[in-house]
Amino acid sequence: MEINQWVDELFEVFDEDKDGVISRSEFVDLIECLLQDKGIRMCESIFHQFDKNHSNSISKDELREMVIDLAL
């Protein structure tokens, strides 16, 4: 599966309210799934790092950047 398809599917699963962004609570679920037991502090740090426009949510483009950065 290519990275864009994987991000699209990941985004669809974790954008639970289907508003087109990953909210803070949805992001916590996403990070827990991706990183397992790394802890909430890491989640907060990653959220702030990738919420580039400080909207308190993660867009699909921000998620794509996060997945690429964390995977490499």
Automatic annotation (TrEMBL):
Sequence ranges assigned to domain EF-hand in this UniProt record: 2-37, 38-72
PROSITE patterns in the cross-refs: EF_HAND_1, EF_HAND_2
InterPro entries assigned: EF-hand-dom_pair, EF_Hand_1_Ca_BS, EF_hand_dom
SUPFAM superfamilies attached to this UniProt entry: EF-hand
Name of this protein: EF-hand domain-containing protein
